[in-house]
């Protein structure tokens, strides 16, 4: 088994495993931290931004002019924001058989993987992950397209060494990409197959993938990938806290051969319960001082719990008249979906549904007018409804686009106002940098519900994996607290560690394969008693290997199927009666040895396939025959003929056998 790590951030993982002739991607997260190097997209042209000085390095040519601007001794790119998607240099995305998506935040890079890459596989996820992920993608696209930039800047990437930090520390900026569009979202989601919890789904007949509840968000899951001999567990973002999703289920994940660990708590020095209390307390304190509260956040997930806790806190201090605004292009759909997916919620919220109550408090509050959802600042009725002091939940948590940018400019000069950062993904200092100097008070309350290191260590001991794969950063304490030895993972035997864009060879060898026996062959066997309680029989059969399944068949049946089955003129199949010419004989020679690609290419040309094209790749080589609509994948221990035409398959098979030695 091979493991390819395609990301540089353990909490936004994207990886690929190659196992039992299948290639499976585990999550396709979009790393959004590169947006911090760009200037915010303004809904309304701002004089302060226009007055920012252009910046040029001393030794640079004038071709950089207009690309960089300076604000408070920090340099930003004046261009549409760019994102880091999984790199495709390690594996060809066209060879992917399946993509397993764990939660709604792990779907954001999907269009970069499936569109215009030759992808022909399937994408597996739960229904809430699909619907809520679609909302996140739609919001992201609309925010960026709402404020187009006059130019796209890219020349700065060629002279990183001349730029000041932190821009000079940017990793692989040449691989950063601009956001996709709505049409590309639709195309990417057309590959999706919806699965339920604990529903095994076959992938190319070789392995099954099963989604197991992870407790992180609505519809989130860990993945169990199993063959008849081996069991692989992918532990994605998981939570043991009692929040709105269904609880973590780790029983089916026990005793795997390989355990892949990712997405532990992003801020291990914080406690999510304490941070939630601090968030509510800071918001109430600001409101009682006649200040406004801005909460940059995603439109799904954590926002449901934050609204519920904040409303309860406001009621306890007799501030129930304070308006709460939820601004997002998908605000209405988000609130609606959270109530629709009741079977994916915690048991306490499911019981509310059975009692004909709303599972979330915000449903009742929205009908009562206390929570007011709007698509944007310019939505009909917002100006008439808007009053201060208030609480505003809006995007984007990066503060680089969305309605949050406008509120930062609107409330920046009042020290009574606060902006509360709850998303652990973004550093609040980087997010606020282009808005400096700032009188508005920032408060950092990262609410990260992923399992912490103590819980992860206990979970590892419960699962008892033979081999563990984890990021190298999980084996040492944070740099700021090297004495905290409790903030790291230890395994016995030591885990295999992966780093940025690395490849691991995992010791998972296949020793046997599962094969089925045709009923005709089983009926022809004559078992003989060897000893008490044990009988045996010799078998002479033909081994059929198709779609990663093995079948033992009677040799006569195989011969007859190949020689006597034919097509009639009207397209119906008929079989001629067996005659002397169709009597099968056992093979007189058996092939073995290493395939000579040169001899095969020569044989294909002599057989009329003169357009056969040979391409080298990491695992071997690929031969493409466009005239026959066929492709050959040649590896060290396997050769696959991929075509929908039976005659072409048999023709190429015969040529392959001629290129091998025989006994």
TrEMBL record:
Boundaries of every Beta-Casp domain copy: 303-432
Gene Ontology cellular-component terms listed: cytoplasm; integrator complex
Gene Ontology biological process: snRNA 3'-end processing
Low complexity compositional bias, start-end: 571-585
Pfam assignment, any one: IntS9_C
Keywords: Cytoplasm, Nucleus
Entry keyword annotation includes Cytoplasm: yes
Region (Disordered): 560-585
Principal localisation: cytoplasm
Chain intervals with Basic and acidic residues compositional bias: 560-570
Protein's cellular compartments: Cytoplasm; Nucleus
Gene3D superfamilies: Ribonuclease Z/Hydroxyacylglutathione hydrolase-like
Claim: Transmembrane helix is one of the keywords in the record: no
Family: Belongs to the metallo-beta-lactamase superfamily. RNA-metabolizing metallo-beta-lactamase-like family. INTS9 subfamily.
PANTHER family hit by this protein: INTEGRATOR COMPLEX SUBUNIT 9
Name of the protein in question: Integrator complex subunit 9
Organism: Hirondellea gigas
């Amino acid at each position: 088994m091979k493991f390819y790590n395609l990301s540089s951030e353990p909490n936004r993982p994207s990886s690929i495993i190659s196992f039992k002739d299948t290639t499976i991607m585990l999550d396709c997260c979009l790393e959004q931290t590169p947006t911090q190097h760009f200037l915010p997209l303004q809904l309304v042209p701002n004089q302060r931004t226009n007055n920012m000085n252009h910046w040029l390095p001393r030794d640079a040519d004038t071709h950089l002019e207009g690309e960089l601007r300076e604000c408070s001794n920090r340099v930003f790119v004046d261009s549409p924001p760019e994102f880091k998607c999984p790199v495709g240099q390690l594996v060809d995305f066209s060879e992917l058989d399946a993509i397993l998506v764990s939660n709604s935040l792990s779907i954001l890079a999907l269009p970069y993987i499936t569109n215009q890459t030759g992808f022909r596989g399937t994408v597996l996820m739960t229904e809430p992950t699909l619907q809520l992920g679609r909302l996140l993608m739609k919001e992201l696209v609309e925010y960026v397209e709402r404020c187009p930039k006059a130019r796209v800047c890219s020349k700065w990437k060629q002279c990183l060494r001349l730029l000041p930090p932190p821009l000079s520390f940017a990793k692989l900026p040449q691989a950063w990409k601009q956001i996709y569009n709505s049409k590309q979202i639709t195309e990417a989601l057309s590959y999706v197959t919806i699965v339920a919890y604990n529903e095994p789904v076959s992938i190319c007949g070789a392995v099954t993938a099963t989604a197991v509840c992870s407790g992180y968000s609505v519809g989130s899951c860990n993945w169990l990938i199993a063959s008849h001999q081996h069991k692989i567990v992918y532990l994605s973002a998981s939570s043991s806290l009692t929040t709105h999703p269904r609880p973590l289920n780790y029983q089916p994940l026990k005793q795997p051969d390989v355990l892949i660990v990712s997405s532990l708590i992003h801020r291990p020095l914080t406690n999510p319960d304490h941070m939630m209390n601090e968030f509510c307390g800071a918001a109430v304190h600001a409101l009682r001082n006649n200040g406004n509260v801005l909460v940059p956040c995603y439109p799904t997930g954590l926002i449901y719990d934050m609204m519920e806790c904040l409303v309860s806190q406001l009621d306890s201090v007799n501030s129930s008249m304070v308006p709460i605004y939820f601004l997002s292009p998908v605000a209405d759909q988000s609130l609606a979906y959270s109530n629709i997916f009741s079977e994916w919620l915690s048991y306490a919220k499911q019981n509310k549904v059975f009692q004909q109550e709303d599972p979330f408090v915000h449903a009742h509050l929205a009908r009562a007018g206390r929570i007011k959802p709007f698509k944007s600042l310019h939505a009909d009725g917002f100006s008439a409804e808007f009053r201060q002091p208030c609480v505003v939940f809006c995007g984007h948590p990066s503060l680089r686009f969305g309605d949050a940018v406008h509120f930062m400019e609107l409330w920046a000069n009042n020290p009574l106002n606060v902006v509360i950062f709850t998303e652990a993904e973004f550093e609040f200092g980087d997010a606020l940098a282009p808005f400096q100097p700032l009188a508005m008070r920032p408060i950092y309350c990262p609410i990260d519900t992923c399992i912490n290191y103590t819980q992860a260590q206990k979970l590892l001991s419960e699962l008892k994996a033979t081999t563990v794969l984890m990021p190298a950063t999980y084996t040492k304490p944070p740099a700021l607290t090297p004495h905290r030895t409790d903030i790291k993972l230890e395994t016995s035997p030591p885990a295999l560690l992966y780093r940025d864009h690395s490849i691991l060879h995992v010791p998972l060898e296949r020793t046997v394969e599962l094969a089925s026996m045709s009923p005709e062959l089983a009926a022809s066997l004559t078992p003989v008693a060897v000893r008490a309680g044990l009988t045996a029989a010799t078998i002479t059969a033909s081994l059929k290997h198709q779609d990663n399944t093995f079948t033992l068949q009677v040799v006569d049946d195989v011969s007859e199927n190949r020689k006597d089955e034919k097509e009639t003129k009207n397209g119906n199949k008929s079989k001629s009666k067996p005659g002397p010419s169709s009597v099968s004989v056992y093979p007189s020679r058996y092939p073995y040895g290493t395939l000579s690609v040169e001899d095969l290419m020569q044989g294909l040309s002599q057989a009329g396939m003169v357009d056969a094209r040979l391409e080298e790749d990491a695992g071997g080589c690929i031969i493409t025959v466009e005239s026959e609509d066929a492709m050959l994948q040649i590896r060290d221990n396997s050769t696959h003929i991929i075509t929908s035409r039976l005659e072409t398959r048999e023709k190429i098979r015969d040529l392959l056998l001629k290129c091998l030695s025989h006994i």
